[in-house]
User: What shape does this take?
Amino acid sequence: MCRLVAEAAHKGDKQLILDTRRMVGEPEDSVHTPLDPHEFCNKIFHTCCVGTKNSSAETRKRVKDLSEAIGSYHMDLNTDTLVTSVRDLFAFVTGMRPRFRAHGRCGAENLALQDARLRMLLAYLFAQLLPWVRGRQGALLVLGSANVDESLHGYFTKYDCSAADINPIAGISKTDLKKFIAYARDAFEIPILDDFLIAMPTAELEPISETRVQTYEVDMGMTYDELSVFGRFRKVEKCGPYGMFTKLVHKWGSFLSPVQIVEKVKHFVFECARNRHKMTTLTPAYHAESYSPNDNIAQTNLRPFHYPLRFPWQFKKIDEVAAVLPDRSNSAADKTKTD
Assistant: This one.
């Protein structure tokens, strides 16, 4: 967008130049013209790496390098003192101190200790005050970061990354996002984007142990490619559990057995139903595809948000069919090839 603005400014688009001056808070007598996309990006786009002691140096460096490549106003901060204060408050009130799973404790403690919602509070605090810090008026919009696949699965914290003013990627699957990143890497000459394409997606909200590294696909129990396929079947082709199974037997049958496909269908449907309530709170999004689950599009997703999690009739039906279907999968085939 900043490149398009600079291009139009070079052509002398007077209305655009006036609009950009207003957007960045220039004084009325300003003669500033946004001819440099990096300079304009620095005025309107603010990025922040909100990390903890669990955040890796590699992740922080990738984010910083990208901010420098595009020109955003960037900050890097640790929230360890804030996180510790919240945990101390809980321990003071209840007399109990939760621990991470890596320290031998339960899943409920582990999930609560990731303190993801604190990032939403910080995001809005900084969005409100950063213009003031930079000597300007007004406030900033907060951008969300949950994509279609994570929304369908429910793999996001309610009122964390899902809570924002607008989400530019909420209507796009991870598979399509990676294609766009690859395009932007070449078209806009931003080689650092290659590091994002090959990096393993991870939240880095809990300690890493010898037996566990927190990655998105491991946590979700399925790959982004699989979620993308399920999402299209669910929304575009209006498939339920049985419909998904009958289509996937043909699509994935060469490398997965019917029983394996059944398990994947059940897992997706269960997680989608269990977390359906989260989708009712998703941030309004830019919609570029027909498979978005976002409830903010009028008349497109009028499904209930309370579901029977086990879908007894549908699951019984696909179990019966899978039991009599032959296994045509190749044992030597790549079992992860589900795109």
User: Anything to note?
Assistant: The first strand starts at residue 46 and ends at 51. The mean pLDDT is 87. Strands lie at 46-51, 73-78. The chain is about 50% helix and 5% strand.
